[in-house]
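Human: You know discrete backbone vocabularies at least as well as I do. Show me how you would write down a chain together with its backbone fold. No explanation is needed for now; the record alone will do.

Assistant:
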Amino acid sequence: MKKLSKLVLLIACIASSAFSIENLSIGGRASGNFNLIWGENSRDGAYGFGFNVGGSVLYEINPMIQINPELTFAFRKHFFSHEINVILGSSSSDFAVTFLNLDIPILARLQVIQPVFFEIGPLLSFNLSASYFSEMKSSSSLTFTQEEDIDESSVFEFGLVFGVGKKLDIGTGLDVNFRFILGLTNTYEDNLNNIFGVELPSIDRDNKTMMFQLGATYWFL
């Protein structure tokens, strides 16, 4: 046990000496997002907007390679509509689906051509809340609204991030970048056809996130 403790202590000392605080930067990040839904039988025309805000860390391994993990709160929303045909007539339903997530991208940054850099890595996203708002307009000019939480939302989502950015000499440092984010897991189980007491045929839908993100990180340390 003593030998194991000494070995663990030795590894910790080596790791701490290799991890130089001089190579570490800390900053705040904000971004705006354009959201789409993709997948088999996904909602046609579903789109929306959102934003991320939080913190970012950049560790420089060498002048060409850095590691960039982030922790941001993500607000996402997408809209879609469909027609419902029933015995008494037809109606149009408009949906707004809202998510609040905790996003953790872990990116490798490649500084190939100064000051331009490229980013790639996984995105881990944890859902904090999910809800929808629906408005149905019937052919008889009646309007019904409904708002509820989505109990079938995925607790965890996984995706891939691809990005390109540029470093700017503003203050202690400012990065601006554009990212494409492709979700690989479903965001929620889509059973929104059964609201307002209207029973419609069940359809298995893949609802995966696709995002185009324009953001900036200001490095204050």
